[in-house]
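Journal club prep — side note

Before the paper discussion, L.F. wants everyone to see what a predicted structure for a comparable chain looks like in token form. Sequence:
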Amino acid sequence: MLIALCGKPSVGKSTFFKAATLANVEIANYPFTTLKSTEGVAFARVDCVDKEFNVKCNPRLGFCLNGKRFIPVKLMDIPGLIEGSYQGLGRGNEFLSDIAMGEALLHIIDISGSTNEKGEAVEPLSYDPCNDVAFLEHEIDMWVLGMIKKGWEKFSRSVKQENTNIYKALAKQLSGIRVTEDLAKNVVKELSFSESVDTWSDEDLKHLAVTLRKFTKPIVIVANKIDVIGAEKNLERLKQKFPSYLIIPCSADSELALREASKSNLIKYVPGDSNFEIIGNLNPNQSKALEYIKENVLKKYGNTGVQDILDKVVFDVLKMVAIFPGGVNKLEDKDGNVLPDCFLMKEGTTALDFAYRLHSSIGDGFIRAIDVKTKRTVGKEHVLKNRDVVEIVAKC
């Protein structure tokens, strides 16, 4: 799974990326600090199951803090897009190709209105962040439209003359943005298009591009810099203007400060929590900064937003569930690690799907599965739920 961070320059994408991954990236308040896309590992948070078994887990990947299991997900920080990126301006086609790799997009917006359309610093609240939502939609939509229209006459002619399955042909042409044959069929029918592709107008192709983008690249709006005084008014306007979007307030600066302080053993902090505990000796500046975060971010919004956003995109937008492999009589692996693994799977995953996720030979040899919590035997078609612990019994 890959989640892409995108938006215009200097809105806090790299700060969000560093806060989520603690990767060593350059952060500055001028446009085009990030010149190439960077991948890192962030984490989705879920309640661990170890307490239900009265054990302490030992994750092989990710970590567990105070009963919260953090499961790795890939995060990509994409350089800022500018107007005309879909035409190749500012290496836009390269960056849009990187965006296409994402299963979901986190559109980082400067909700404080202190970054103009070019990514330049301006007086807080002087720029309308609502403009940025339409900007990103337009750039991606036009880029997808360009992919559709590339060689369209030849494409439509060959479909008609060779009586090709149009949905299969569309899926092949648009595989780069994760269009499947079933999705192409559903979208064409939803738009009430004729199956004669040579009758589709330019306006039809644009509608097709927009609809496919909505299905293949769901966008969550990250209202960053919510800690700036007055930014909450922009947040309310944004929510009113774009009611169909999931819009989450965020202070990436605050999250980064908390994680760095935790890493330095100055505070105890679990990412996503609404508070922290001071355990080290703070200088006056550190005390003042942490107090500001507590009063203006944590108390007002419940958390900094960074972890909340990652969790919502993984579990609510991409519809994933966390599944733990384990045994009824043994939760340890061969090395003695307790509940060492946790896998993110699509909602609707069956016991057989999970067996294949563990190993192809386990799927091929599937006999039955056991719900470790209830000790109930289930079949291969049994649909797994979030935080299930499952034992797979298979032929050797």
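L.F.'s comment for the group: The chain has 13 helices and 14 strands. Keep this in mind when we get to the figures.
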